[in-house]
C-alpha cells in the first residue's frame, strides 16, 4: 500500500510539472515529493496565480509594426481597386457600349457575367488562400485582375469581352475574403475593430466613389481608362502586399481532401442564381425559358451544394454556423443593409439621369457627399464600437434609424427636385451606413474563434456580393412595376376627367400653337409633351414608393438586431495572469 501511494505521488508530480512547463515554463517552484526542498502548503499553491502564456504566434508572422500596417493597407487598396473595377465600368456602361459599338441588351451581359463569377469566387476563395498562402494568393489575383484590364478595350466582339470580364471578375472576387482574414489575423486584438472598419470601406466608401471616378476618367482622360484606371493602383497594392504581409507557407497537402464535388456543383449554381437576379427583369422573369431553367437547375444545384458542405470533411464554409443566433441575425442583416445602401445610392442617380438628364459628372457631387466623409466616419464609429461600454447592437439600430429618416425625406420627391435637394438624404447616409455595416460585421465575426475566420469570411463575402445582386433585381422589378402602375392610373384619371376640363382649354397645345402652321403637327407634339409629363410623374411616384418601403424595412431591421443577436464585446489581448481553478 505504501509503494502504491508513493507511485501515485510520483505520477501526480510528473503531471503537474508537465502542465506548468507547457504553460510558460513555470515549474521550477514545484518540488519533487522526494526532494529535500520544502514546497509551499497546498492551500498556498492553489491561491497563487498561475501564469498562462499567450499561444505562440506562427514563426512566419513578425511582430506587429509599420511593416504589417503597410501590408494590411496594401490589401485594403487591392480590394478598393477591385471595387473600382466593378463600379466604374458599371456606371460607365453606356459610354463603354457607345465607344465599342455594343447594343444595350448585349451590354447587360457584361455586368451579369462579371458579377456572377465575382460572387461565386468569394465563396471558394478561403480554401485556396489557406492552401496557396495569403501572401502568394493575394499578389497573384491582384496582378491578374490588373493585367486582364490591358486588352479589355481592344476585344473584337462581345463574346470575347464577356470571357475576359468573367476571369477578371473571378480574380477581383478573390480579394475581399482575403482582406477580412488579414484584418482579423494580423492585427492585434485592441485594434481589430478598426480592421473591421477598414473592411467596411469596401461596402460604403468604394461603391459611392465609383460614379465620380467614372465621370473623371471619361470626361477628362478617355473611355479606355474606365478599364485601365485600376492598373497603377493595383501595381502599388502588389508592392505593399509583397513588402508587408507575412510569407506564410504553402499547404499543398490540403489537395488530398479537396472538395471537387462542391466546386463543380457550387460554382455553376451560384453563377446561375446571380444571372437570374441580374437578367430576370429584362427577360420578364419566369416567362423566359432561360430564367426558368437557370432558376430551377441553379436552385437545385445550390441545395445539393449546401448539403455537401454540411457533411464534407473539408468544406468551403460551414453551414453549422447558422445555428448561432448572432450568425443568423448578422448575415440576414448584412444582405438587407447592403441592399438598402445600394438602393439609397441608386435612387438619386436614377432620378437625376432620367428626369433631369444629368451626366455622371453632374451627379458626382451627390455621391461624393456620402463617399468622402466615410474616411472620417468609419474610424470614428469603429472607435465607438471598440469600447466595451458600448453595445454595438444599439449603434446598429441607430444607424438603421438614420437610413429610415433618409428614406422618409425621399418620399417628398417631386419632378421639381434638383441635385441640391438630395444632400440632406445623403448626409443622413453618411452616418447611417458605417453605423450599420461595422456593427453587423462585428456580430458576424467576433462571436467566433480565430480558426473559424476562413469559413465565415467566404460566407460573409458571398452574401455581401449577393446583396448587390438582390438590390439590382429589386430596384429593376419594383421601379418598372410601380412606374407602369402609376402611368396606367394617371392615364385612367385623364381619360375619366379630361372632358370636364375642356372648357379651360389645352395649356400644352396653347403653348405650342405658334411653333408650326400645321395643326396636325402641333397636336402630335402636344401629345408627345403630355406623355413626357406622364412618364416623369410615374417615374417620380415609383421612386417615392421605393423610399416609402425602405422606411419600414429599416425599422424592421433595427428591431430585429436589438432582439435577436446576443451582445458581443470588442476583442482584447489575453490577460497575463489568470486565477487558478
UniProtKB/TrEMBL annotation:
The keyword Transferase does not apply. The keyword Transport applies. It is found in: Membrane. This is MFS transporter. It comes from the Bacteria. One of its GO terms (molecular function) is transmembrane transporter activity. Keywords: Membrane, Transmembrane, Transmembrane helix, Transport. The chain crosses the membrane at residues 109-130, 137-154, 166-186, 193-213, 225-246, 258-279, 285-307, 327-345, 365-385, 392-411, 423-448, 460-479, 546-564. It is a multi-pass membrane protein. PANTHER family: MAJOR FACILITATOR SUPERFAMILY MULTIDRUG TRANSPORTER MFSC. One of its GO terms (cellular component) is membrane. Its main location: membrane.
Amino acid at each position: 500500500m505504501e509503494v502504491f501511494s508513493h507511485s501515485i505521488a510520483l505520477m501526480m508530480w510528473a503531471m503537474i510539472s508537465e502542465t506548468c512547463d507547457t504553460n510558460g515554463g513555470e515549474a521550477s517552484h514545484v518540488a519533487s515529493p522526494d526532494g529535500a526542498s520544502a514546497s509551499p502548503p497546498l492551500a498556498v499553491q492553489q491561491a497563487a496565480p498561475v501564469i498562462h502564456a499567450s499561444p505562440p504566434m506562427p514563426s512566419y508572422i513578425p511582430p506587429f509594426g509599420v511593416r504589417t500596417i503597410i501590408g494590411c493597407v496594401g490589401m485594403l487598396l487591392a480590394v478598393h481597386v477591385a471595387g473600382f473595377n466593378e463600379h466604374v465600368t458599371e456606371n460607365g456602361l453606356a459610354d463603354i457600349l457607345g465607344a465599342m459599338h455594343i447594343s444595350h441588351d448585349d451590354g447587360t451581359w457584361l455586368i451579369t457575367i462579371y458579377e456572377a463569377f465575382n460572387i461565386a469566387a468569394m465563396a471558394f476563395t478561403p480554401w485556396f488562400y489557406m492552401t496557396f498562402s495569403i501572401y502568394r494568393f493575394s499578389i497573384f489575383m491582384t496582378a491578374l485582375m490588373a493585367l486582364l484590364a490591358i486588352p479589355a478595350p481592344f476585344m473584337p466582339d462581345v463574346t470575347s469581352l464577356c470571357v475576359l470580364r468573367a476571369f477578371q471578375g473571378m480574380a477581383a472576387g478573390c480579394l475581399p475574403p482575403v482582406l477580412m482574414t488579414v484584418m482579423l489575423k494580423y492585427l492585434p486584438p485592441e485594434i481589430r475593430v478598426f480592421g473591421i472598419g477598414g473592411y467596411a470601406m469596401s461596402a460604403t466608401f468604394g461603391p459611392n466613389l465609383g460614379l465620380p471616378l467614372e465621370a473623371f476618367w471619361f470626361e477628362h482622360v478617355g473611355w479606355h481608362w474606365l478599364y485601365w484606371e485600376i492598373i497603377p493602383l493595383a501595381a502599388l497594392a502588389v508592392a505593399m502586399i509583397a513588402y508587408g504581409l507575412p510569407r506564410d507557407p504553402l499547404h499543398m497537402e490540403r489537395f488530398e481532401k479537396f472538395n471537387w464535388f462542391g466546386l463543380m456543383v457550387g460554382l455553376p449554381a451560384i453563377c446561375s442564381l446571380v444571372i437570374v437576379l441580374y437578367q430576370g427583369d429584362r427577360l420578364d422573369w419566369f416567362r423566359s425559358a432561360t430564367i426558368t431553367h437557370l432558376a430551377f437547375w441553379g436552385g437545385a444545384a445550390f441545395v445539393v451544394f449546401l448539403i455537401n458542405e454540411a457533411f464534407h470533411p473539408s468544406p468551403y464554409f460551414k453551414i453549422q454556423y447558422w445555428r448561432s443566433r448572432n450568425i443568423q441575425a448578422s448575415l440576414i442583416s448584412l444582405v438587407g443593409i447592403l441592399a438598402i445602401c445600394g438602393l439609397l445610392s441608386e435612387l438619386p442617380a436614377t432620378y437625376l439621369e432620367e428626369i433631369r438628364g444629368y451626366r455622371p459628372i453632374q451627379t458626382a457631387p451627390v455621391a461624393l457627399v456620402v463617399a468622402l466623409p466615410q474616411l472620417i466616419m468609419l474610424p470614428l464609429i469603429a472607435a465607438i464600437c471598440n469600447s466595451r461600454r458600448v453595445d454595438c447592437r444599439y449603434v446598429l439600430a441607430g444607424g438603421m434609424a438614420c437610413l429610415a429618416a433618409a428614406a422618409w425625406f425621399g418620399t417628398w420627391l417631386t419632378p421639381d427636385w434638383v441635385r441640391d435637394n438630395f444632400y440632406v438624404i445623403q448626409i443622413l447616409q453618411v452616418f447611417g451606413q458605417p453605423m450599420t455595416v461595422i456593427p453587423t460585421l462585428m456580430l458576424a465575426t467576433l462571436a467566433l474563434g480565430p480558426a473559424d475566420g476562413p469559413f465565415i469570411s467566404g460566407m460573409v463575402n458571398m452574401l455581401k456580393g449577393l446583396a448587390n445582386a438582390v438590390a439590382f433585381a429589386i430596384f429593376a422589378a419594383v421601379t418598372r412595376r410601380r412606374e407602369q402602375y402609376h402611368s396606367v392610373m394617371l392615364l385612367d384619371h385623364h381619360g375619366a376627367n379630361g372632358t370636364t376640363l375642356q372648357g379651360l382649354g389645352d395649356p400644352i397645345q396653347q403653348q405650342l400653337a405658334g411653333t408650326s402652321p400645321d395643326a396636325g403637327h402641333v397636336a402630335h407634339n402636344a401629345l408627345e409633351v403630355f406623355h413626357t409629363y406622364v412618364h416623369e410623374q410615374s417615374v417620380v411616384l415609383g421612386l417615392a414608393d421605393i423610399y416609402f418601403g425602405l422606411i419600414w424595412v429599416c425599422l424592421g431591421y433595427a428591431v430585429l438586431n436589438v432582439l435577436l443577436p446576443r451582445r458581443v464585446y470588442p476583442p482584447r489581448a489575453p490577460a497575463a495572469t489568470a486565477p487558478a481553478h
